[in-house]
Design brief:
With 168 residues, the chain is an alpha/beta fold. 29% of the residues lie in helices and 17% in strands. It has a 4-stranded mixed beta sheet. The two termini are 22 Å apart.
Length: 168
Amino acid sequence: MICPSCGYDNIEGADRCEECVTSLRNSEVAQPGRESLSKSVMEDDINQLDQEFLSVSPDTVALEVINKMRAAGLGCALVIDDGKLVGIFTERDLLNKLTGPTARSNQTAVSELMSADPEILSEKDSVATAVNKMSIGRYRHIPVRKADGSYSVTSIKHVLKYIAKAEW
């Protein structure tokens, strides 16, 4: 391994340059695939991620929404009223609002339990944008508005699956 400071040709795997004692740990050659993964995360749009969809109307009772989520194996449902996304009901909403000492009835309308006006991504946003918004907002699920006006949801699970598929 060539020392970036003095140019000495060290034995591969050395931690420090034998000539000038500069650390070689940060000067390792990039591993194949890592740069392409970084590039694809920045450039690939959200359509590269798996997406799912379950919608309910605002007046649907919580128990019915929970049963639909369970049957579909999903962690959230989009609350749509007249074609407009008005909220998202997630597992976190279920835990925070339907359990504990201040729990509401499972017959409560989902509109009273949902997270209203959720942040929405465009299908042309990058995977990096999705990761950033999920991280900053502490979301596991985020709605995606498609060009035709319909919606889907992508999640951190889908991001991890995308990364796992990348060639290293």
